[in-house]
Design goal:
Number of strands: 4
Largest sheet: 2 strands, parallel
Structural class: alpha+beta
Order of helices and strands: HEHEHEEH
Low-confidence stretches: none
Strand content: 15-25%
Distance between the termini: 11 Å
């Protein structure tokens, strides 16, 4: 669905706080087509309020749609590692 998202003038960026070898294995093993940024200090998830929500020193799975002006237009913060919005939900929020 990455192409559909790009077709809506949007971009996907993943931010990982995992150690680089684990994250690199996931990226190559899953053949992720979009950029994955590494933030080992967890500054970005902390600034978005999604770090250590479960007291586990990890970033909760979260999806943000951010406008070109930097304003958060929509967000979904998962309650557990597998709790993520569906692609159709994301596409509808993007106007697709």
């Amino acid at each position: 669905m990455y192409g559909q998202i790009q077709g809506l003038n949007a971009e996907v960026l993943a931010i990982s706080v995992d150690n680089l070898s684990d994250a690199e294995f996931a990226v190559t093993g899953l053949e992720i087509p979009f950029p994955v940024l590494y933030d080992l200090s967890a500054q970005v998830p902390s600034s978005y309020g999604v770090y250590n929500l479960q007291g586990d020193s990890e970033a909760s799975p979260a999806t943000f749609i951010v406008g070109v002006d930097g304003e958060i237009l929509w967000k979904y913060v998962g309650a557990s590692k597998g709790d993520r919005p569906s692609v159709s939900t994301i596409l509808s929020r993007l106007g697709g």
